Amino acid sequence: MVSRVIPVDPFDLVIFGGTGDLARRKILPGLYLRFWDGQLPETAQIVGAARSEMSDEDFRGMVRAAINEVVPARKCDADRLDAFLNLVSYVAINATGEGGWRELAARMRPDRVQAFYFSVGPSLFGDLAERLHSHKIAGPGARIVVEKPFGNDLATARALNKTLALHFDETQIYRIDHYLGKETVQNLMAVRFANMLFEPLWNAQYIDHVQITVAETVGVGGRGSYYDKSGAMRDMVQNHLMQLLCLTAMEPPSKFDPDAVRDEKLKVIRALEPVPAHDIVRGQYQPGPDGPGYREDAENPDSRTESFIAMKLHIANWRWNGTPFYLRTGKRMKARVSEIVVRFKEPPHSIFEDDTGQSANELTIRLQPNEGMDMTVTIKEPGPGGMRLVDVPLDMTFAEALGEEAADVPDAYERLIMDVIRGNQTLFMRGDEVEAAWAWTDPIIAGWTEREEKPHRYEAGSTGPEDALILLHRDGRRWKELRA
Q1: Mind telling me the catalytic residues?
Q2: How many CA atoms lie within 13 Å of 197's alpha carbon, on the beta-carbon side?
Q3: Per the database record, which ranges form the Glucose-6-phosphate dehydrogenase C-terminal domain (predicted)?
């Protein structure tokens, strides 16, 4: 199998916050890898923009260091890196003032695709959008990329949408969620809608339940002050897990088209039933031998912010009536795992003895680590010991199935930035989708705030609070074991 690299049109990309952590870890290394792979034209222009005074050469030196740190050594070819850095320049910009905007305007080329990456805090989105238009920098086809958090609740999300809409049409706004750029997430759509094997079974008649887990081994660390105002619900559930839920549960779109796909995702969010308090478990990791507890990391000894959340959801439509979706995410967990587990129902009648070992089929879609999928099926255990059944995985780990090609699967940011240049919004959130997610999330947060609930304690390096296990045990189910 040979992957195809399809070059994009010449473009000008401005990265506001070009000296920040996200730019250095993801955006700039990702652009270099697309250049290394031959996808970026030599006429492309990448402009870093930030408050710091810095020359083009100083910025290129920072970009070189970032790439050497992040990109595998086998791809840090000196000649290619020099050629990439020739595309890179820098402008010192005052986002809330007038400094640097004329210089930036002079560098833009109206005959190129124009993209502006807002790798800054949401409080600056409006200022940047306003100045891009007042200085006539953004042309009619310009695109802006905005990072989460996109609002802190429904009211702030609506305000942000209105602010951006003053200067940009919805078709120009790319709200990025890097989870949607992962290869396995897109493969979920391919598996569902390109294989007759799965789609007829993808409903409540055949699926017992679905588990979506995003577990991290790290704590909040240096993000403590931000995270303490957010928590797992706002930081992970409202966006990342919600997107995975939508892609798992949505109806087949009429075609693979940005608005057709996002229309179906929106229907899922609007069909979510309110979640009662007894179907939600919040947790907070405690100090352990490997590090401090959440309250120490957040520098707030009285914090009631959750670093873990598990919940049981129901979707009120014909396809999923009676099939629960269990969501789980947390910091300082036993293993770093992101996966979707689709547990099918057991056969309605078994012809085998009760002790033969027969169980239900299970499809696991792994986002990290070791991206891939496996399907657990039941077969006869080899040997003369009678009819003994055993569960075995039909494994499609990308690294094994695709060999060296899998090692070169683009990072999510690489793919999503190229989609921005192409003008493809399929993997980006629409404004009404974001608002619908907050409209569902806000009452849940308001409920535990009114009840003054304290998160359950859980040990760092565990699978979370005991109550999260009980959430499934009372339904006669179990979480899939966390394995790295």
Answers
A1: 240
A2: 5
A3: 189-480
Residue 23, marked binder = yes
Q: Is 216 annotated as a binding residue?
A: yes
Which residue, among 338, 391, 390, has the nearest Cα to 364 in the 3D structure? 338
Query: Within 10 Å of residue 255's Cβ, how many Cβ atoms?
Result: 8
Q: Domains for the chain: give ranges and CATH numbers.
A: 11-147 (3.40.50.720), 180-405+442-473 (3.30.360.10)
Instruction: Give the per-residue pLDDT at 254.
Output: 92
Cα dihedral value 295, 296, 302, 305, nearest 10 = -20
Paired strand residues for 48: 15, 90
Cα–Cα nearest to 340, from 360, 364, 361: 364
Cβ neighbors of 430 (< 8 A, separation 6 or more) are 170, 175, 259, 262, 266
Any binding-site annotation on 165?
A: no
User: Can you tell me the mean pLDDT for 141-155?
Assistant: 91
pLDDT at 93 over 70: yes
Which single residue is written with the structure tokens 């907050």? 438
Higher local confidence (pLDDT), 352 or 218 = 218
Measured over the CA atoms of residue 165, residue 166, residue 171 and residue 175, the dihedral's sign is negative
Closest CA to 11 of 143, 170, 130, 167: 143
Q: What tokens were used for 315?
A: 């979707």
The pair phi, psi for residue 203, each rounded to 5°, is -165, 175
Concatenated DSSP letters for 18-34?
TTSHHIIIIIHHHHHHH
Nearest C-alpha neighbor of 438 from the set 192, 266, 277: 266
pLDDT for 358 beyond 80: no
Report which of 16, 79, 77 is spatially closest to residue 47, judged by C-alpha positions. 16
Task: Point out the least confidently predicted range of 3-17, 198-212, 275-289.
Answer: 3-17
The two three-digit tokens of residue 192, written as one number:
């569902």
Helix (H) or strand (E) holding 405: helix 404-407
**Residue 414, both tokens:** 């690489």
